[in-house]
Amino acid sequence: MADALKDFYNSAVVGGIAERVSAAHPAFPADHFRKQVMAALPPLSLMQRARAIADGLHYHLPQDYPDALEILLNSLGPDDNKGGIDGMGGFRHLPFLNFVGAYGLEHPGLSLNALRRMTKYFSAEFDIRYYVERHYDQTMQAVRSWTSDPHWAVRRLCSEGLRPRLPWGLRLKRFIADPSPVLDIIETLRADPHESVRRSVANTLNDIAKDNPDAVIATVRRWQAEDRDGTADSVRHGLRTLVKKGDRRALDLLGFDHRAPVTALDFAIAKQRYRVGDMLAFSVSLRHDGKKPARLSVDYAIHWRNARGGLQAKVFKLAKPQLRPGETVTLEKTHALKPITTRRYYAGEHRVEILVNGQSLADGTFKLQV
Questions:
Q1: pTM for this one?
Q2: Looking at the structure, do residues 15 and 136 belong to the same domain, yes or no?
């Protein structure tokens, strides 16, 4: 998680946590907790700050875990039904989840029930992973039962919490090696009525595709054959990495014609030099040389200069044109080179590449001044 967001955990938020805990447990030393935590936060990132707050809670709450957990549960307040995925507000509950992930492993039944309750406030996707590792059978039994939970955030956790490569989360190597248990879980969620659950299914499918593309292709083929309503978005987003890589099976499943002969014409980057804050602009014309109409997946990759002086590509969607035989389409794009929390810019030569159905058809360079 980006360091620029770390200031969310400021004195007001830490003080608010102290007030809520004190309301549920009047003996809680709120002032001491706040001072101790705030002294520890300055050098820490966002996620490290959440864990530091959890450690502070552990230090000042009763050392009997069940008693401490009950206090935290009583401190949650009303559920806003947003599940902590709308804006930054839900992050105020992350230290409570971190507390369960760090200190509750000796009480798996109690802790898993707590994660089910807490995930309605902020996703427990990071902390349930420790229970997958330590108490696999018990955790998977709980997750299977949660797939029919009436609350959408609990159902979403069943998918998001098992993603093999969840960003900023513990990597679940067992599911990288064998994704079948995760595929079984998302099978029941792929047509969930809540969009956030379906999007999580797509993200999980995309995670699995990075290491087990054959399993994902087989799964999607079966889903499409069954033609169940509500799965189209999950399939499209779940295959995005394979599409960017030009996997012909994935392209076929989404209706793109990977056999179409296409020629890139007149690729041009508007300027040769840019500064951070500028709008990178480029254009390209694509001519379809085939004899049948073709639907294309067109992406662009920016090869960013990294700290070691090399280039690292990030792929972005450009267009999905449908071309008649002999037709030419011109595509124009601007890309903001603005400062963002997830990228550090480095001066030097960068490259833009045009990808059609995953195949490189044109490229050019520009220089970035930082």
A1: 0.85
A2: yes
Same-domain check for residues 180 and 280:
no
The CATH number of the domain where 363 resides is what? 2.60.40.10
Model confidence over 286-319: pLDDT tens digits?
999 999 999 999 999 999 999 999 999 999 999 9
Which of the listed residues 235, 253, 271 is the one where a domain comes to its end? 253
What does the pLDDT average to over 200-229? 92
Which residue bears the tokens 């039962």? 145
The answer to whether residues 302 and 224 belong to one domain is no
With CA atoms as reference, report the closest residue to 337 among 329, 328, 346.
346
- Domain with 156, as residue range(s), is 3-253
| Number of folded domains that form the chain | 2
How far does the chain reach from its first CA to its final CA, in angstroms?
A: 23
pLDDT band at 1 (very low <50, low <70, confident <90, very high): very low
Q: What is the CATH number of the domain that holds 118?
A: 1.25.40.290
Tell me the pLDDT tens digit for each residue of 78-101: 776 666 666 567 889 999 999 999
User: Does the pLDDT at position 356 exceed 90?
Assistant: yes
Residue that the structure tokens 């029941």 belong to:
188
Cβ–Cβ < 8 Å for 244, 315: yes
Dihedral of CA atoms 134, 148, 75, 85 in degrees, nearest 10, equals 90
- Of 196, 4, 10, nearest to 92 by C-alpha is 10
Place of tokens 């972005």: 316
54-64 in b/e burial notation, b at 16+ Cβ within 10 A? bbbbbebbeee
**Residues 37-48: what's their mean pLDDT?**
94
